[in-house]
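Researcher: Re-running this chain for the archive, since the previous output was lost when a drive failed. Same request as before.
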Amino acid sequence: MKRQVLSLIVILVVLSIFTVPQAAFPAPYYEGKVIKMIVGFTPGGGYDRMTRLLAKHLPKHIPGKPTILVENMEGASSIIASNHLYNIAKPDGLTIGTFNRALPFAQVIKLEGVKFDITKFAWIGSSAVEGTVFTLRSELPYKTVEDLRTAKTPINMGCSGAGTLDYQFSLLAKEFLGLNMKMIIYVSSNECMLAVERKEADGRSGSYSSLRPFIDRGLVRPIFRGRVPEKGIEHLPVNEDLTTDKMGKTILSMFSSADMIGRPYVAPPGTPPEVLKILKEAFAKTAADPEAKKDAQKNKMEIDYIPGEEIMKVVQNVLNQPPDVIKEFSKYVKF
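Model: Regenerated structure tokens:
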């Protein structure tokens, strides 16, 4: 009898192990939740296209498979979006965002309206290193920097705002490479490229991933690039090598830091480390996902993952420049 009772107890214990109520195991943090990805620019540009690509592929790499929505919060070269992420969005991992990769410059020159410390965001990382390229309409006769220096009439370079990378890259080229050029500002990169199509603007600078479709179909011709190379533009001359001005070389090199930051993604300060870890792992897995890579290539983009810690090294290098360099840099970098 005792043996039968003991056997029954053993059976009940074994059954209890395999019939633990599902509620005893906590559900994944993101199960049933919605993540909002904020883009500091208008729809259709490079930041927007990359974010929508990520929003499509990230959920399957996040435990709980949350829904991801994209919200465009354009304005002030994405400073509005950055201020929102820093001061308003809750640090719960349900709001993340991307902004102008040149924003560390806004902080270093102490720009009015900046209400964030770039180093205190919860850095997820970057989805790509971005090379910057200067392009002109293909039918124009200018093929070299020397052609642009000796142009009889100023080149009309389109750009999407005083604080954007396309504006700043062209402005620095004008200043330190001696190009005969004037800037024309449009409300967005899409409007700028429409102006190039209509021949209102002669060209535009910008990330290679954004301009590659226009280069591939022959609308524009690349002339030179920034320090960060990308496959397809690595043969182009580098802006730093095209000036003999020592401070100019330093400033152009410092400006290239933005390309190493690439397509940054952050969460609000104070985001729990365990939640940030989930997001970092999801970004890394998405960048290695064959379907995501195929989707990126179809849209003439490259997707990668650069950890937040690596991006922070670049940011700190910008912020720690000597006062004389920052003073000179401030003369040329406008927002």
